[in-house]
Automatic annotation (TrEMBL):
This is Vms1/Ankzf1 family peptidyl-tRNA hydrolase. One of its GO terms (molecular function) is hydrolase activity. Residues 135-168 are annotated as: Disordered. It comes from Kribbella sancticallisti. It comes from the Bacteria. Keywords: Hydrolase. InterPro entries: Bact_RF_family2, eFR1_2_sf.
């Protein structure tokens, strides 16, 4: 699953199995004063949808333990166990409570989309400080690269030997940048990140960009930030730039996907829209990116055990192992997308010209 690279796939896959009902809760951790009132509202919503008392009680413990916090708590429970919890700093919704056959992942996917996996490398002539933000994270993991060479000064003695000293210094800077490039490439692959921010010494950055593998140059969005490794007071400004540029990159990604969708919809099947066509593409495993507007739909559908078992009608043939289960249409579409290695993209309502749509890997007639 590409969209949830920052989350352990094992509990998520169990949630998406559809064999045990799931309680999905999103709860604002920040204002502690009215927590009991807001929690009673969520508990009532879950109860009205059929959630048993022991499931609601299990979630209540996590709410009380997590307040106050930096944003929104996302928690998913089955039976008397909370199987997955995440904190979504600065998420907006005050509370959501859903209970049914499938987890309600759309708010979580929207959060991760706004916080893609990204790496920040700040270089000087000796190496780099690297911050890794896994998908869906606002807090980095830190790493430091100290290059293999420590001869970095160019102001060596004058005379006939000065050129030799300068060349050795330049070689050292380049060797150190190569070490940084190798580490950056490894981390991009490990965290499945497609966004790289670079800052620091201009010459070191030039060497780094020369030695980045071609797949980074062609397949990763690379942007520059201000600031360096020294304590020069630039950290706050760099943090602001990181937030602003990440937001801009996400908007550009949305625009690119919508442009691709507009270019292919109605021209042969590489882009589809509407429930009938999108469900047919999901059932065939053709979807590359599922597109959904931000606002939730009230439509319902049915699904069976396999990821591609889905229908707009309670079809008795769906899922040879048992009867079809009813769930919100969007939750079923998200399940089918994630379990067939498709991405999910949440599109702002003002930019979405559809209720549900998809970009496909291949046309219906291509195998």
């Amino acid at each position: 699953m590409t969209i949830l690279s920052g989350i352990d796939d094992t509990p998520l896959t169990k949630l998406l199995a559809g064999d045990t009902p799931v309680a999905s809760m999103y709860f604002d951790q920040r204002p502690p004063g009215d927590v009991p009132v807001r929690w009673r509202t969520v508990a009532r919503l879950l109860s009205e949808q059929g959630a048993p008392t022991h499931t609601i009680d299990a979630l209540a413990e996590h709410v009380l333990d997590a307040v106050p916090g930096p944003g929104q708590l996302a928690a998913f429970a089955q039976g008397d166990k909370v199987t997955l919890t995440l904190t979504l700093p600065e998420a907006d919704a005050a509370y959501i409570g859903r209970y049914g056959a499938l987890p309600h992942l759309k708010p979580l996917l929207a959060w991760e989309q706004e916080h893609p996996a990204r790496i920040v490398a700040t270089l000087d002539r000796t190496g780099a400080d690297i911050s890794v933000y896994p998908a869906g994270s606002s807090e980095p993991q830190a790493a430091t690269v100290n290059g293999p060479d420590d001869e970095i000064e160019r102001n060596a003695p004058g005379g006939w030997s000065q050129g030799r000293y300068q060349n050795r210094a330049e070689d050292s800077w380049e060797h150190n940048s190569i070490a940084v490039a190798e580490t950056v490439a490894r981390l991009l692959k490990r965290f499945r990140a497609h966004v790289l921010f670079l800052a620091g010494d201009v010459r070191a950055l030039q060497y780094l960009e020369e030695h980045l593998p071609r797949w980074i140059q062609t397949g990763v969005t690379v942007r520059r930030l201000s600031g360096g490794r020294s304590e020069d007071g630039s950290a706050a400004r760099q943090s602001e730039q990181l937030v602003d540029q990440t937001r801009q990159i996400v908007a550009e990604q949305n625009a690119a996907l919508l442009a691709e969708f507009a270019a292919h919809v109605g021209t042969g099947g590489l882009a589809v829209q509407g429930t009938d066509e999108t469900f047919a593409a999901l059932a065939a495993g053709r979807v590359r990116t599922l597109l959904l507007p931000t606002s939730d739909s009230d439509d319902r559908a049915w699904f069976g055990p396999a990821p591609t078992d889905l229908s707009l009608q309670p079809n008795p043939l769906i899922g040879a192992a048992g009867a079809a289960c009813e769930a919100p249409l969007e939750d079923i579409a998200i399940r089918a997308a994630l379990l067939t290695d498709a991405d999910v993209r949440i599109v702002p309502d003002e930019e979405a010209t559809f209720t549900i749509a998809a970009l496909c890997r291949f046309t219906p007639t291509a195998a």
